[in-house]
Write a structure and sequence with these properties.
Distance between the termini: 52 Å
Structural class: alpha+beta
Number of strands: 14
Radius of gyration: 26 Å
Low-confidence stretches: none
Shape: globular
Strand content: 5-15%
Length: 583
């Protein structure tokens, strides 16, 4: 569609010959011609007439277009040098499009795209640029405070139709929650502000409460409509709030969340926060801590009352790739914030995918619902599920997680590799339509190739398999020609570039001689921002890299930065100094 019309989108219409060669493409078409816009019925009638009377007018250009498409998707360049230039260019693109008043990027409609925020925090650290980090933190604050975030039940809506993040499209998607959680945890590690930790925890609680299936996996999301109206489930009037909370507590809640008689959406209200806690507490004449407790109790009462309303439809498919993102988010949050419940939820989802969405021959499948698993998994599914397994391994360091990640990565390379270092989106065993497509650019969620770059690099470093890491670098090098056209559209791939350029921190945590866990040492890693950290799977003291152990009875930690290793340390402060040093 982009080749034929210069643009593309949804709903997408493509018409093909019986040989599956395309000759017509368009995005939205009304049923019948109106307002100068061709209607689908009239278009198809004209195509039918031409096909009957002069088929060469369709078959000749369709062959030419098919050949052009195959040529466009076949190329994968190699030999580019990895350096910081795409990262610097991406940062400048973010600066140009950033909204300094309302945060986020561009104008309405605004999409959260939290993987952009994760990249910005990496750029802020790499270049010592507080503005880059500030753009990410300001956007996360705006998302959490705005109507795009469900202030009563938690969770992020799909996008905002305005530039202020007030009025959302009320659909909730699993992948948006997962990417938001990952960015929020990193924001807490960057800033030390509990606000971002609470954002991650709140969104995790929504995932587990509303989207986790009895089998352990996570459903796709929730629709926007209920009772035939978009957003009806989420809207409130002051009278509805006071009916649940009583006059006094209801008045405080309405003032805090901007719920008014006039309304802000079709006569009712999308709850959102305006002023900070201190200002709201001052208005209410109570202490800030007391206000927070009051509002949380009120929120829970309203959530219970709202649950009795007709609910939006929940899409109860389990998709492998989207579950991989949720596993990554829950495992990372559970580890970073010392909450084993989130790690357990991630582990349950991983077990569900491994048993219900994997054939006896080991081939992953795309979708499961009601006992039926169908469709061979795509590159996105393999790479995102491996991402989840890597985060789960880092959180609990069980060898089985790493072993499964390695097995699936090898299968991914075999099924999707193009023979020159690149990847196709569909497997060698999948149905062929036109050609095997490949995509690198991120959309609402990262592309399969961009995630593959990251997992190859990390998995290679974790396992000591230099071949895996080299193939990740080669994939990244072959992608640079495309990335350099508009780097900020390739945030996840650039996170991989940041990792590859290093410095990469490999930390080995060693229990004490009596088996005591290195909890105090691990806390240093949890609370700091180390985006290029991998925690070693080994706990052996008999590694020649470490030299003399200062106190072999106590737990120890060893740091290798870009393969230059320091002796083991027992003291958390010593580890913190090492992590902050340049070695």
């Amino acid at each position: 569609c982009q080749m034929l019309t210069g643009s593309g989108g949804w709903p997408l219409t493509v018409v093909l010959t019986p040989e599956k060669e395309p000759f017509f493409a368009a995005t939205y078409l009304p049923k019948r011609t109106r307002g100068g816009m061709s209607g689908l019925i009239e278009v198809l009638e004209r195509i039918s007439e031409v096909w009957r009377t002069a088929p060469d007018r369709l078959t000749v250009p369709s062959r030419q277009l098919t050949e052009a498409l195959q040529s466009r998707l076949a190329g994968f360049s190699t030999g580019s040098t990895l350096d910081e230039s795409p990262l610097r260019k991406a940062l400048e693109e973010y600066r140009v499009t950033f909204d300094p008043k309302h945060a986020g990027f561009g104008s309405a409609p605004k999409f959260p795209a939290p993987h952009n925020l994760s990249l910005l925090m990496r750029l802020g650290q790499r270049f010592g640029d507080p503005e880059a980090t500030g753009m990410a933190l300001q956007t996360l604050r705006a998302l959490r405070s705005g109507g795009i975030y469900d202030q009563v039940g938690f969770g992020l809506h799909r996008y905002a139709v305005d530039h202020e993040w007030l009025v959302p499209h009320f659909e909730k998607m699993l992948y948006d929650q997962a990417l938001l959680i990952l960015a929020a945890v990193e924001a807490w590690q960057v800033s030390g502000e509990r606000f971002f930790a609470r954002l991650a925890e709140a969104t995790c609680s929504y995932l587990v409460r509303e989207l986790q299936s009895p089998e352990g996996g996570f459903y796709c999301g929730e629709d926007a409509d209920s009772q035939g109206t978009e957003g009806a489930y989420y809207l409130w009037t002051p009278e509805e709030v006071e009916e649940v909370l009583g006059a006094d507590r209801g008045e405080v809640f309405c003032r805090s969340f901007n719920i008014t008689t006039a309304g802000n959406f079709e006569g009712r209200n999308i709850p959102h926060l305006g002023e900070d806690d201190a200002a709201l507490a001052h208005q209410a004449g109570i202490a800030t801590g007391s206000l927070a407790t009051n509002l949380e109790e009120a929120r829970q009462q309203l959530l219970a009352a709202r649950s009795r309303r007709p609910r939006p439809h929940r899409d109860e498919k389990l998709l492998t790739g989207w579950n991989g993102l949720a596993i990554a988010a829950l495992a990372r949050t559970g580890w970073a914030l010392s909450n084993p419940a989130w790690v357990e939820a991630a582990a349950a989802a991983a077990a569900c995918i491994n048993t219900r969405l994997r054939r006896p021959d080991g081939r992953l499948l795309r979708s499961w619902r009601g006992g039926a698993a169908v469709i061979p998994a795509f590159l996105e599914d393999y790479s995102c599920f491996v991402w989840g397994l890597l985060e789960l391994h880092q959180a609990r360091r069980e060898a089985t997680d790493l072993a499964l990640a390695v097995t699936l990565t090898k299968a991914m390379e075999r099924l999707f590799g193009d023979g020159s270092g690149g990847f196709y989106d569909t497997g060698v065993d999948a149905e062929l339509v036109l050609t095997r497509g490949r995509s690198l650019q991120d959309g609402a969620l990262p592309s399969g190739t961009s995630v593959a770059i990251n997992i190859l690099l990390r998995l290679g470093r974790l396992t000591g398999d230099a071949g895996l890491e080299e193939r990740g670098r080669r994939l990244l090098e072959g992608s640079l020609a495309q990335i350099n056209r508009y780097p900020s559209a390739y945030a996840q791939a650039l996170c991989g570039l940041d990792f590859s350029l290093g410095p990469i921190d490999e930390v080995t945590l060693v229990p004490g001689r009596d088996g005591s866990a290195p909890a105090a040492l691990e806390k240093v890693l949890r609370s700091g921002y180390y985006p290029r950290l991998v925690i070693s799977a080994t706990d052996s003291r008999k590694d020649g890299r470490w030299g003399e152990v200062p106190n072999p009875d106590r737990p120890s930690a060893g740091l290798c930065r870009d393969r230059a290793c320091r002796p083991l340390v027992n003291d958390p402060e010593a580890l913190q100094r090492l992590m902050a040093s340049r070695l």
